[in-house]
């Protein structure tokens, strides 16, 4: 069983994540608060803790005056802090290029970069995280099958297994590709231990999970958001929050073996999920 949204938990603790580094800003400025957030999810029953490296990059840290060697240490620290929180497994988060731009383009993809350019961007981040010894790399919130292929190439030979997780809408990637085409980039890749979706509406999960399993033959990973919608004009969320516990049984029946939450899913919702999944959460 996975954890929930790290940013919302940090905000609940009074941390400021309004920065292009996002949760990595807390990694840089308030690591004790990050450890506190991880521990909250571990206490709630999460067996996999995800690091605060989603928007971390050498370029982003450089804008804060952090040199390359120090940035690599900080990325490693994200793994070490999650490990110190006490859950059995640590997933090192590798967000898409659009996340590092911090302009919402991870929900569009298609940045105008070649596959080779994307590989060159992701490879140093992956190397820095892998060197710290996570149990898995979470290639997550990926909007585009082209970038997914580039991220898998960048992770090749790093010595750490990966899961690949797309953000989807309307039964397609955010870049508009059919899910069968998107999941196919991971088919036959022995480094990939799971394929699925995150940072999407909960009702997108069942069909996507079923396609992920059918196309790749791998277990699925599923950790959607709360189902609320962000209103950028008004600066607030609206809609009804639905925790993953409400649908976890159906996701598991469709083939999901790694289940948790993303945006706006906090420790309380993860604790409810732990009750629903029970002993199966440890398998």
UniProtKB/TrEMBL annotation:
Residues 1-277 form the Hcy-binding domain. GO terms for molecular function: S-adenosylmethionine-homocysteine S-methyltransferase activity; zinc ion binding. Zn(2+) binds at residues 199, 262-263. Pfam families: S-methyl_trans. Its cofactor is Zn(2+). PROSITE patterns: HCY. Binds 1 zinc ion per subunit. Keywords: Metal-binding, Methyltransferase, Transferase, Zinc. GO terms for biological process: methionine biosynthetic process; methylation; S-methylmethionine cycle. This is Homocysteine S-methyltransferase.
């Amino acid at each position: 069983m996975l954890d929930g949204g790290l940013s919302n938990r940090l905000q609940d603790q009074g941390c400021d994540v309004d920065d292009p580094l996002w949760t990595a800003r807390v990694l840089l400025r308030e690591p004790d608060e990050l450890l506190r957030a991880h521990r909250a999810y571990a206490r709630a029953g999460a067996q996999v803790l995800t690091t605060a490296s989603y928007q971390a990059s050498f370029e982003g840290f450089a804008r804060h005056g952090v040199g390359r060697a120090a940035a690599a240490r900080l990325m490693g620290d994200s793994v070490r802090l999650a490990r110190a929180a006490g859950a059995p497994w640590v997933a090192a988060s590798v967000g898409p290029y659009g996340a590092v731009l911090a302009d919402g383009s991870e929900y569009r993809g298609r940045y105008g970069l070649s596959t080779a350019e994307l590989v060159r961007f992701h490879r140093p981040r992956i190397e820095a995280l892998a060197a710290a010894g996570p149990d898995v790399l979470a290639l997550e919130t990926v909007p585009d099958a082209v970038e997914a292929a580039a991220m898998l190439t960048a992770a090749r030979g790093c010595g750490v297994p990966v899961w690949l997780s797309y953000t989807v809408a309307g039964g397609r990637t955010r870049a508009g590709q059919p899910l069968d085409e998107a999941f196919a980039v991971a088919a036959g890749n022995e480094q990939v231990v799971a394929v699925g979706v995150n940072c999407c509406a909960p009702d997108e999960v069942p069909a996507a999970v079923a396609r992920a399993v059918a196309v790749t033959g791998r277990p699925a990973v599923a950790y959607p958001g709360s189902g609320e919608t962000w209103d950028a004009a008004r600066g607030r969320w609206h809609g009804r929050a639905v925790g993953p516990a409400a649908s976890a049984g159906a996701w598991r029946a469709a083939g999901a073996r790694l289940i948790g939450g993303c945006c706006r899913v906090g420790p309380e919702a993860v604790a409810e999920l732990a009750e629903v999944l029970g002993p199966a959460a440890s398998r």
